Amino acid sequence: MARESILVVEDEDDIRELLRYNLAKEGYQVTGVASGEEALKAARATPPDLILLDLMLPGLDGLEVCRLLKGEPQTLDLPIVMLTAKGEEADIVTGLELGAHDYITKPFSPRVLLARLRAVLRRRSLAPPAEDAPLKVHELFIHPGRHEVLAAGRPLDLTATEFRLLNLLARRPGWVFTRTQIVNGVHGEDYPVSDRSVDVQIVSLRRKLGPYGKYVETVRGIGYRFKE
Q1: Please, are residues 156 and 162 in contact by the beta-carbon 8 Å criterion?
Q2: Contact partners, residue 116, CB within 8 Å, separation at least 6
Q3: For 108-136, what is each residue's pLDDT tens digit?
Q4: Which domains, and CATH codes, for the chain?
């Protein structure tokens, strides 16, 4: 049975072959390229279902590839999962803010990598509900029209900012949001709120959620996500 197509962008031959082998074994259609320039050419010619993109590439690096693809209508919605080395937290944040969906740190477990890619592909096939549509996720019920949140049937007293923050995260379970993305999504772009303010709002939201605060997960050095 035909499966989704994945474009692997990795300049190290042995890692690219390892990725190609493991993905093909799972039934994915895999194309491998060794440079950012080749990645752009392949993605523009035949957009894949997902791009696995190494950030450290010769010539055009992964962040620039991500920026260019997210700026073009035909590739804007392509899921991009970044391959990064340890200690590249700043690049990870930049990549996520450019529109990448997730990241995997080298060295990686093939099983973990496959699980993460499946999750991204699954989320792509399930478009997030409209921002103003009522939402049921885990034990929480969120109703934007009523500005109401019920936790296992119990109403919660959230501020307007806490409500928007929960609504933003809960509509995309598993997605990693940087603090800048959270500020933009909750307050709008260029709103003068510090990263520290986001952390304080998360702490307050978790406290009010009580036992369900565990669903708001910290991604160390990056930001936050709602448990899938």
Answers
A1: no
A2: 81, 102, 104
A3: 888 889 998 988 888 776 555 566 788 89
A4: 5-125 (3.40.50.2300), 135-226 (1.10.10.10)
